[in-house]
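Q: Entry one of two.
A:
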Amino acid sequence: LDQYMLLISALSHDLGHPGVNNGFLSEVGHELALQYNDRSPLENMHCAKLYTLVAVPQLNVLSRLSKDEYKEARRTCIEAILHTDMMGHGAMVK
């Protein structure tokens, strides 16, 4: 399940990317920066877009998971996508 979710995370980690970085979004007061309190706004948006798609029955690649598997899969995916924020990269690799 972890490998599958890492694959889904890799495919989803830039869903809806506007072509600018988090610092820019925070600096200009973009709605994503405001919505996510300047904490990894792009990565949070990517996760939200993924789970909006997963909510569509025809697109739900997690539909066969049990409730517990779904919770674990979601946690893994969100964690993986949030770790793609380069602002936290230095602390993560120490």
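Q: Entry two of two.
A:
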Amino acid sequence: MANVAADQLSKEQKDELLCTYAALILHDDGAEVTPQAMTNLIKAAGCIVESYWPMLMTKMIKTVGMEALIKMGSGGGGGG
């Protein structure tokens, strides 16, 4: 999604991205990542996501762990 402009993303991709950013913000702030906290943050940003997205994201975070998910998303540097 990094190579695609936000207005070119599907509704599902935008919802996933909003939830990802909300989870990262909450985690970085030291707050508990809950569906309600994510929804509140997304609404405060003037956005709306399908109600199942925050629940799915928090379930994944609780199952896998936020630190592990962050490490999965960070790619290695380019070779020389």
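A: Comment on entry two: The mean pLDDT is 89. The radius of gyration is 13 Å.
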